[in-house]
Amino acid sequence: FICSYMILAPLFGYLGDRYNRKMLMSIGILIWCGLTLAGSFTTQSNFWALVLCRALVGIGEASYSTIAPTIIADLFVGDKRTIMISIFYIAIPVGSGLGYMLGSGVMKLSGDWHWSMRVTPCVGFLVLLFLIFFVPDPPRGASEDHTDSPSSRTSWREDLKCLCTNRSFVLSSFGTATVSFTTGALGFWAPIFLLRARDINGFTEHTSSSSYDSLIFGAITCVTGVVGIGIGAMTSKYLKKKIPHADPLICAVGMLSSSPCLFIAIVLAKHCIALTYFFIFLAEIFLALNWAIVADILLYIIIPTRRSMAEAVQITICHVLGDASSSYIIGAISDTIRRSQPTSSYWRFVSLEYAFLLCPFIAVVGGALFLWTASYLEEDRKKASQQIQGCLTGITFHFGQHTSHFYANEKTRLESPCALGSDGQAMDKERFQD
């Protein structure tokens, strides 16, 4: 699923910047729901059909995740955009948390895991109807009075080149990858880690299955996502009025604060499960501060006609360096450590505990990346703002003591003279075009 998601995201990013976005999202949701439902009917004899269905579900998420934020960006601007993006990104932890809880609950009630995959497609088809009939598809850049015309679009290669030279985008994307690495490792390994901790502590009533810890961890993920994203959005709204580059600083504080919480949670697991849950709760709140803020950063440092591509590139970076690799890396480290000692329940726990200690270190790296982002943010935001207004790529000519600056704005070029001489006199249209 993650492989197809991160491979197809750039394709949908390219399409989302050029074609009907509602149509692309609708197709994606239809594929998403249809394949999830189809996967629920697979049996043990056709296991590879289940693998194929799960992999192709990435098509749906790749289409939706790259395009939906750009529509929100075109409907709102400023503080309203920050709030609306936050509401949108609250769905990520809420959905993840409900996934743990609903999957575990439905499987217990039905005694069959197939039924846990038949609930969400029903909700998805309902959402598809709401999308088709109630969600508008505004012109790209509508909230910023930007004209979305074919002449304003560039090639895929040019888009990618511009994104790679945008230092705030690159650094914040790698910073987001560290968030994804940490949350991905927690999501995959935390229930198993807590199950092993219960085992060595003698809590045998829950050691036969990880569903108990999955249920609790799902509830924690759901609550911390809502709380963390809400705190991040409100803090950003307040601080940006006083500190222009507050957003990456908030992200840095979130990552650096999550690191000691993760470390304490990991170390305490063999002594007190309740305290471990408490510090995981705190760590996830600090990690959740980042989600909506990073999305907002992308929207104001990238021009409207490149935002879907930017979302796609950021998603690819996040998954390749984040949750697509973190669960494997943690598992590989744990296996390597465990081979050096006799097999026992205690050493199975300790090997995973040592492997998990990579997460606090990665969180510190993420904090450093966001601090680095802060040093370039204002410059990149001004460039994007000027380019949206058609005044970024100017050409300056020097004629002895006279200097003229020409703005690359098609609308201005056709409708009014906008080139000014060094004395402030406007040049006529013929001289401008010449």
UniProtKB/TrEMBL annotation:
Q: Does the keyword Ribonucleoprotein apply?
A: no
Q: Which reaction does it catalyse?
A: a 1-O-(1Z-alkenyl)-sn-glycero-3-phosphoethanolamine(out) + H(+)(out) = a 1-O-(1Z-alkenyl)-sn-glycero-3-phosphoethanolamine(in) + H(+)(in); a 1-acyl-sn-glycero-3-phosphocholine(out) + H(+)(out) = a 1-acyl-sn-glycero-3-phosphocholine(in) + H(+)(in); a 1-acyl-sn-glycero-3-phosphoethanolamine(out) + H(+)(out) = a 1-acyl-sn-glycero-3-phosphoethanolamine(in) + H(+)(in); a 1-O-(1Z-alkenyl)-sn-glycero-3-phosphocholine(out) + H(+)(out) = a 1-O-(1Z-alkenyl)-sn-glycero-3-phosphocholine(in) + H(+)(in)
Q: Which Gene3D superfamilies match?
A: MFS general substrate transporter like domains (1.20.1250.20)
Provide the family line. Belongs to the major facilitator superfamily. Spinster (TC 2.A.1.49) family.
**What is the name of the protein in this document?**
Protein spinster homolog 1
Please tell me one Gene Ontology term that the record gives under cellular component.
Answer: lysosomal membrane
Q: What is the lineage of its organism?
A: Eukaryota, Metazoa, Chordata, Craniata, Vertebrata
- In terms of one coarse class, where is the protein primarily found? membrane
Which parts of the sequence belong to the Major facilitator superfamily (MFS) profile domain? 1-378
* UniProt keywords, alphabetically: Lipid transport, Lysosome, Membrane, Transmembrane, Transmembrane helix, Transport
Q: Name one GO biological process term.
A: lipid transport
Is Lyase there in the keyword field?
no
- GO MF annotations in UniProt: transmembrane transporter activity
- What is the topology of this protein in the membrane according to its UniProt annotation? Multi-pass membrane protein
According to the record, the segments passing through the membrane are: 23-41, 47-71, 83-103, 115-135, 169-195, 215-236, 248-269, 275-303, 315-334, 354-377
- List locations, semicolon-separated: Lysosome membrane
Which InterPro entries has this protein been placed in?
Answer: MFS (IPR011701), MFS_dom (IPR020846), MFS_spinster-like (IPR044770), MFS_trans_sf (IPR036259)
